[in-house]
């Protein structure tokens, strides 16, 4: 165990920066093996006393410090440790500090600050990477004007980019050259970016709503240009959408996107120089799946939308992270809904929320949307801050209505432009624009945990009244007890026996622990549709019968609740079956369930069938989702029962499934429309179902589909089905795939991923081969994720094998990565965090692994925080 306790930072300790910065000039002299950074900063005193100037700096070699030209001496004029440079308060109110540091991007495997990826120099400064470049007040409320000069070898680094406008270029000695960039808009240092390398680009322009032309560029390695056109279209669509939906126009003349292969996250919104993981830019049908295309579109939009929600208006401190991330996720979700399908988008967003965020909210790392303390901020880029944060914005949209919400965001942009603000500032704009009192609503930002919402309904035929009693409760979470009732907006409808809505859809405002809502003049017993569109992130339980659920599956006008009703029904059946199996009892799959699955399947033959929605309706809750509704979870047992049920459904509906598969088989040229993608989704869903059921045709159909595939969606679905088996077709297809795609990194990630997530009995041997493969490396996060996250998150039955071998495999990787890339190591702990939810034997093994990690020498703050909190709870 670490004996030195890392520092915890608290929201309550916030203080204004003691010094502000008028402007900063950064000079980068890049050589192979070392980069010299000269930062010249104009500081201004921002307080009355004589507080020291405290500058953050890590992994830096300090060469020199000068104030107003005078060289300072260490220990005499300033103090230095491995994280902080302290200067006593200078006598003058304004002063110029010149700091020279040396850094080594070539050796930087942490991938924050300045590092090299495949020969390209690039930066990642959010949240606290700027301090790995120079000494600075590395906090988002210090906003300033940046000018940047980059000098490097002209041959190896022909392209030199930074934020803002290019103002000078020129030659330097020894075959070197330079560029100078000026950003006319003040920004915090986390939005600084630099790129230097040998890149090519595709270019386009966008005419903004006021008629300004913006140059758009996407920069990639030579040979990747052809894979950028979809991202460019997504960028233009995003720019247009932000103008139409939020009145937000792009504010500079140039917008660059650079794609790099080694990146800790998905993408980063640096001012006018977004840096992306190649996985979220490069997309063409031969190597990217339909899902990849949708992700590229969403992430391009997300980062672009940050230009207003994050960059022009930024966070006062990192506790406010959801101010920009929750809001921007909400915006990208709405955009994706507009581009594709609102109902499907909502289902997928809620599915992600439940699968990832609900467990976080009920586990050892539960924290509010606005956390009030952290050890390592990088651990707080969580599904709670992002996805629940988006839900919190969505509820405000629901409470205000579309028009008033727009007035409120207009006010926000006007009132806080070029400021660093808090979540209170945002909500105040919502209040001021609407006249609503959102003080109780604000608890959504400060109370952790997912509220439990229970609904009890009653119909009185005599008085023709329908009533619904809603009760809310919020369990304790680490550090938080005795929580207050929240303001929960419950979208609600009543459906008559003929399937028609009996009332106009309404919002029930639940504000107390318990409230009853009554509806008069209801002539017949209705079926209530509760929490339409999942209008609040709660765990709803109701007294609806299975008959009611089957009724809603067909009749609800709300697409989300049609899906939801089917899922709840399936969950009930699955849970009964698992209970029976745990007690060694027989279980017969109810005929009603088999029949209702058959009716869903029949919809596939309707000409106006929405195949994307249907695919989701047909998908049974998976092991992860089922596990959330159980205690002492045994994922292997859940997997077995689930497979049995699927096998029976496939037996009962074999003919329909065969026909659906054949009717929806891809044929002819590849089309990338929503309809075409939905059709492929249905086709590949059925193939997967047959695979799970070990249907006699599964292997041959999959191999035929693999061989015929002209796109990655069909190819990967087929390969994935084959990878569940021990057939010769599996090895043939894997070998063919390797041969075909061995030079394409992103396609190779899928080759690793599909094997690591396969439910084969030989999985541990497969994994051992994968991590000793020549193409495996611990220094590229995508490759690491393609094995370890795929195994830990997508393969629960095998990861949780009773032997504990899966836990050990992941643990070894975490310990190894702790020394290479702490951010990635700490994220890999996720599947171990909820150890208390599993069966006692598994708990014991998972806890032992967490302890083994905790005892690792030189444990990073990142991993320490997650592991120690997981063990403590
Ligand atoms: N600002 C983040 C990128 C980031 C995250 C930097 C964490 C440093 C630490 C960016 O806007 C972001 O949120 N990216 C997401 C994708 C997005 C679509 C949710 C990501 O990288 O996963
Ligand atoms: Zn973001």
**Each distinct ligand:** ligand BES, zinc ion
**Which regions are unreliable across 5 or more consecutive residues at pLDDT < 50?**
none
Strand tally: 32
Which secondary-structure class do the elements indicate?
alpha+beta
- Distance, first to last CA: 17 Å
| Helix segment tally | 28
Radius of gyration: 28 Å
Task: Describe the fold and architecture.
The protein has 873 residues and is an alpha+beta fold. Helices cover 41% and strands 21% of the residues. Strands 2, 3, 5, 6, 9, 12, 14, 15 and 16 form a nine-stranded mixed sheet that branches. Strands 18-19-20-22-21 form a five-stranded mixed sheet, with helices on one face. The chain has a four-stranded antiparallel sheet with strand order 10-11-17-13, with no helix packed on it. Helix 2 (290-305) crosses helix 3. The longest helix has 24 residues, at 559-582. The chain is globular, with a radius of gyration of 28 Å. The two termini are 17 Å apart. The mean pLDDT is 98. The structure holds ligand BES and zinc ion.
Write out key terms for the chains shown.
873 residues; alpha+beta; 9-stranded mixed β-sheet; 5-stranded mixed β-sheet; 28 helices; binds ligand BES; binds zinc ion
Short description:
The chain is an alpha+beta fold.
């Amino acid at each position: 165990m670490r004996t030195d306790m890392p520092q915890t930072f608290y929201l309550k300790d916030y203080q204004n920066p003691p010094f502000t910065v008028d402007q900063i000039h950064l000079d980068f002299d890049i050589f192979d093996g070392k980069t010299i950074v000269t930062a010249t900063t104009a500081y201004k005193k921002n307080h009355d006393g004589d507080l020291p100037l405290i500058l953050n700096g890590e992994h830096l070699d300090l060469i020199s410090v000068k104030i107003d030209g005078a060289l300072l001496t260490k220990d005499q004029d300033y103090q230095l440790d491995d994280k902080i440079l302290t200067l006593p308060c200078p006598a003058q109110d304004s002063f110029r500090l010149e700091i020279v540091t040396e850094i080594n991007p070539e050796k930087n495997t942490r991938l924050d600050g300045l590092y090299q990826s495949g020969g390209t120099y690039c930066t990642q400064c959010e949240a606290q990477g700027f301090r790995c470049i120079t000494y600075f007040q590395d906090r988002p409320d210090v906003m300033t004007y940046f000018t940047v000069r980059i000098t490097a070898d002209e041959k190896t680094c022909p392209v030199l980019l930074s934020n803002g406008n290019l103002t000078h270029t020129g030659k330097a000695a020894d075959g070197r050259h330079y560029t100078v960039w000026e950003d006319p808009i003040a920004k915090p240092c986390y939005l600084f970016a630099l790129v230097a390398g040998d890149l090519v680009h595709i270019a386009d322009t966008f005419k903004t709503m006021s008629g300004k032309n913006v140059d758009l560029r996407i920069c990639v390695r030579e040979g990747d240009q052809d894979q950028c056109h979809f991202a460019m279209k997504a960028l233009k669509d995003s720019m247009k959408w932000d103008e139409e939906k939020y009145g937000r126009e792009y504010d500079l003349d140039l917008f660059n996107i650079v794609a790099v292969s080694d990146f800790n996250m998905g993408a980063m919104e640096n001012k006018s120089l977004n840096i992306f993981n190649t996985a979220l830019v490069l997309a063409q049908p031969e190597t990217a799946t339909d899902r990849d295309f949708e992700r590229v579109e969403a992430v391009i939009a997300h980062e672009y939308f940050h230009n207003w929600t994050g960059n022009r208006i930024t966070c006062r401190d990192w506790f406010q992270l959801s101010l920009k991330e929750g809001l921007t996720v909400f915006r990208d979700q709405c955009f994706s809904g507009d581009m594709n399908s609102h109902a499907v988008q909502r289902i997928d967003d809620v599915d992600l929320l439940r699968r990832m965020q609900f467990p976080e909210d009920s586990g050892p790392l539960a924290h509010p949307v606005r956390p009030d303390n952290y050890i390592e901020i990088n651990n707080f880029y969580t599904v709670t801050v992002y996805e629940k944060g988006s839900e919190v914005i969505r509820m405000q949209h629901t409470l205000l209505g579309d028009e008033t919400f727009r007035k409120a965001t207009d006010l926000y942009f006007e009132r806080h432009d070029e400021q660093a603000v808090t979540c209170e500032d945002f909500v105040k704009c919502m209040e001021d624009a609407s006249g609503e009192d959102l003080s109780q609503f604000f608890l959504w930002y400060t109370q952790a945990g997912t509220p439990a919402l229970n609904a009890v309904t009653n119909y009185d035929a005599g008085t023709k009244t329908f009533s619904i009693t809603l009760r809310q409760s919020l369990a304790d979470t680490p550090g938080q007890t005795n929580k207050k009732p929240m303001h929960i907006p419950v979208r609600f409808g009543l459906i008559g026996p003929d399937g028609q809505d009996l009332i106009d859809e309404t919002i029930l405002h639940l504000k107390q622990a318990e409230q009853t809502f009554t509806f008069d003049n209801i002539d017949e017993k209705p079926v209530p549709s509760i929490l339409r569109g999942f209008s609040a992130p709660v765990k709803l339980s109701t007294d609806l019968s299975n008959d009611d659920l089957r009724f809603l599956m067909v009749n609800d006008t709300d697409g989300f609740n049609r899906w939801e009703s089917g899922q709840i029904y399936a969950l009930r059946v699955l849970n009964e079956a698992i209970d029976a199996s745990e007690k060694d009892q027989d279980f017969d799959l109810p005929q009603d369930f088999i029949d209702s699955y058959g009716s869903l399947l029949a919809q596939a033959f309707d000409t106006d069938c929405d195949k994307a929605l249907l695919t989701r309706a047909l998908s049974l809750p998976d092991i992860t989702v089922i596990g959330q509704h159980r205690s002492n979870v045994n994922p292997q047992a859940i997997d077995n029962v689930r497979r049995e049920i699927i096998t029976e459904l496939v037996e009962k509906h074999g003919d329909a499934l065969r026909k659906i598969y054949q009717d929806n088989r891809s044929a002819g040229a590849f089309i990338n429309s929503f309809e075409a993608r939905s059709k492929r989704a249905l086709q590949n869903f059925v193939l997967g179902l047959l695979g799970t059921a070990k249907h006699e045709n599964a292997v041959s159909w999959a191999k035929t589909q693999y061989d015929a595939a002209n796109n990655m969606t069909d190819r990967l679905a087929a390969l994935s089905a084959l990878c569940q088996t021990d057939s010769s077709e599996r090895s043939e297809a894997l070998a063919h795939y390797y041969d075909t795609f061995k030079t394409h990194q992103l396609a190779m990630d899928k080759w690793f991923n599909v094997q690591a997530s396969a439910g084969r009995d030989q999985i541990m041997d497969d994994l051992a081969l994968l991590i000793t493969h020549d193409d495996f490396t611990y220094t590229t996060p995508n490759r690491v994720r393609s094995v370890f996250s795929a195994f830990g998150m997508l393969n629960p039955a095998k990861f949780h094998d009773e032997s504990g071998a899966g836990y050990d495999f992941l643990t070894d990787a975490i310990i190894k990565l702790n020394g290479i890339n702490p951010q990635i190591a700490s994220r890999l702990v996720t599947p171990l965090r909820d150890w208390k939810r599993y069966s006692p034997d598994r708990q014991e093994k998972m806890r032992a692994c967490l302890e083994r990690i905790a005892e690792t020498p030189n444990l990073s703050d990142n991993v320490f925080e997650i592991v120690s909190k997981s063990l403590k709870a």
